Amino acid sequence: MTTYEQLDAWIDAHFDEQLRFLQELIRVPTDTPPGNNAPHAERTAELLQGFGFAAEKHAVPQAEVQAAGLQSITNLVVRRKYGEGRTVLLNAHGDVVPPGEGWTKDPYGGEIKDGKIYGRAAAVSKCDFSTYTFAVRALEAVAKPTQGSVELLFTYDEEFGGEVGPAWLLHHKIIHPDLMVAAGFSYQVVTAHNGCLQMEVTVHGKMAHAAIPASGVDALQAANAILTALYQQNTLYKSITSQVAGITHPYLNIGTIEGGTNTNVVPGRVSFKLDRRMIPEENPTEVEAVLRQLIADAAASLPGITVDVKRILLARALQPLPGNRPLVEAIQKHGEQVFGEPIPAVGTPLYTDVRLFCEAGIPGVVYGAGPRTVLESHAKRADERLDLEDLRRATKVMARTLCDLLA
Questions:
Q1: Does residue 186 contact residue 335 with C-beta atoms inside 8 Å?
Q2: Radius of gyration over alpha carbons of the chain, in Å?
Q3: In a 3-state reduction of DSSP, which class is residue 167?
Q4: Residue of 98, 87, 46, 58 whose CA lies nearest to 181
Q5: What is the C-alpha separation between 279 and 287, in angstroms, rounded?
Q6: Which residues contact 61 (CB under 8 A, 6 or more apart)?
């Protein structure tokens, strides 16, 4: 048997153990918000210790965690040094959006049925805690590398922009790998992705009794005018086309809106949060300036209305670095061999923490266990699931890739 075949065989022999590991990870909730995610890190470290992997626990100071809108964050780093040479870091995030409604399975059950595992984060991205962990275990058991290092990085704030996860660790020089891979799906290797700007817009009017509405200034009516102006932008965005395969055009979404005090009261305050996805070719500073001006112009025609605009997230687009070629080539080669079809290098409309590494000069790509599309995975929807064969095969691809990179 070749070394690659031996890696595959080890993963097959230990796949039941890998599934039990993933089930345990799913069973500890990491809903973000509220983002009380340190308990999951503690449980993960305990499970890793069972494999002989000592995890460094990097607890972020409470003031910084709260400033990021979260409750508790402990980042985990597992360092496996084999000798001199490059360090390859594998990063998956454990934070997830709350389950929401409509589930037919327990979102924290890790139930396996008809060849799939169900649960919140089964596909995004606790699955890749297991993909990466068992790829490294297979590598050490079979290939026994003598050069380079692998680092496992498990973080818990990707949903909030990565500022107290990878960004914090990079800033404090706790990590600085030569190459990195972040959690993704199995049928493509992602080399570029959209950026994301999120802002909170608060519209101030004057509260009044609904029986005498003229004595007030309706903040909701004003918000409606501003929202109409914003939504009209989506029509314009369709004419802006990205040159990156897998990415189409910019778009804008209003995710939440709240305000008012009672049915019989003219609302004096309304706030909403918007999400503006930016294609790699766009300049984030210009995008934000245009949106702020659009909001200001819409409000200027409304007597008695004032507006506050606050940026709550800026995630820059992932621009591929030339140094990512060894990653792309190894994943494509082994992906095609294991999955039996070409693995294209593409962009994605999602945003990820990989951008933080590339901004620090560290080449990275997105690859892990998952289906062809986010829609298939039910990520951020009810009954999130992962095909077990995708998990098995992605683990093989990653083990083989590490074998090549550390040769």
A1: yes
A2: 23
A3: helix
A4: 87
A5: 11
A6: none
DSSP state of 162: S
CA distance 247 to 279: 7
What gap in Å lies between CA 21 and CA 8, rounded to an integer?
Answer: 18
Dig out the tokens for 134 from the structure.
Answer: 């068992």
What is the enclosing helix (H) or strand (E) of 346? strand 345-348
Structure tokens at 289: 């300036």
CA distances from 308 to 64, 235, 272, 305, 362 (A): 24, 25, 11, 10, 37
0.85 surpassed by pTM: yes
CB atoms within 10 A of CB 28: 18
Calpha distance 105→100 (Å, rounded): 12
Q: Which amino acid is at 19?
A: L
**Could you give the percent of the chain with pLDDT greater than 70?**
100
Residues 373-396, mean pLDDT to the nearest whole number:
96
Give strand ranges (E) for 109-268: 112-113, 116-118, 149-155, 179-182, 189-193, 195-204, 208-209, 251-259, 265-266
Query: From CA 78, how far away is CA 41, in angstroms rounded?
Result: 12
Residues in the chain: 407
- Residue 307 and residue 355: Cα distance in Å, rounded? 32
Q: Which amino acid is at 308?
A: D
State both tokens at 78. 């597992």
CA-to-CA dists, residue 101 to 105, 116, 118, 376, 383, angstroms:
11, 20, 15, 18, 10
Q: Is the peptide bond before 33 cis (omega within 30 degrees of 0)?
A: yes
pLDDT of amino acid 349:
87
**Residue-wise burial string across 230-268, b where 16 or more C-beta atoms lie within 10 A, e elsewhere:** beeeeeebeeeebebebbbebbbeeeeeebeeeeeebbb
Structure-token pair, residue 186: 């199995």
Ramachandran region, residue 301 (left: φ > 0; alpha: ψ -120 to 50; beta: rest): alpha
- Point out which residues pair with 93 in neighbouring strands: 155
**Do 372 and 185 meet the contact criterion of CB atoms below 8 Å apart?**
yes
> Which has the closest alpha carbon to 244: 286, 188, 290?
188
pLDDT tens sequence across 292-337: 999 999 999 999 999 999 999 998 999 888 899 999 999 999 999 9
Please count the other Cβ atoms lying within 10 Å of the Cβ belonging to residue 285.
Answer: 10
- E strand or H helix at 339, and its extent? helix 325-339
